[in-house]
Design brief:
By secondary structure, the chain is an alpha+beta fold. Helices cover 21% and strands 29% of the residues.
Length: 184
């Protein structure tokens, strides 16, 4: 299947809302019902960077996938450093398992590396991120500040030694939360 991945444009917002709603229609373990509103809140936030939000389009320029990452911070009593976190990824049902999600993640990781970030995190209950070389963040003593299973709090260092002696808790932008709970 032919598709392209590009930075989101405002005219793609309506299609993205549909993709997010489509991705969570089964009300599975990765949803709390706030995903569409969360993306809108994050776009309105001071830390929003449109280069960290991409869409996949088919050969007819129809939006078929969406992914977004936001700056976050790992903090402890002795360490404080920025990372980015993929907070939303979705592909329309008819286009899944064609590598679209993986290509969007690769694009976001490349953009994060070029922007000088050391790691990308994600919260996910499926095997998708594990298949893309993410590991439980507690392997690096990096803990969640949201109520998730430890194995769902994932991270991928973007180069060797990127997370050496950098443990702490991941703090997300305030706009991420909405109805989500934290365990700060």
């Amino acid at each position: 299947m032919k598709f392209s991945v590009a930075t989101i444009d405002r005219k793609d917002y309506a299609a993205v809302r549909g993709i997010i709603a489509d991705s969570y229609q089964n009300d599975g373990p990765n949803t709390d019902g706030d995903e569409v509103d969360m993306v809108d809140r994050l776009r309105d936030s001071e830390s929003y960077n449109d280069q960290f939000e991409v869409v996949a389009k088919d050969h007819n320029h129809r939006v078929i996938g969406h992914a977004m990452m936001v700056p976050a911070e790992v903090r402890s009593a002795t360490v404080k450093f920025p990372i980015v976190s993929i907070v939303e990824i979705g592909v329309l049902h008819g286009y899944r398992n064609d590598g679209i999600g993986q290509e969007m993640v690769i694009e976001l990781e490349t953009r994060a590396r070029l922007a000088g970030y050391h790691a990308v995190s994600a919260i996910d209950h499926s095997d998708f991120f594990f298949k893309n070389n993410y590991v439980p963040a507690d392997n690096f003593n990096i803990l969640p500040t949201v109520a998730v299973d430890f194995n769902d709090n994932l991270i991928k260092p973007l180069f060797d030694g990127a997370l050496y002696h950098k443990g702490g808790k991941i703090y997300y932008p305030e706009e991420f939360f909405g109805i989500r709970s934290t365990n700060y």
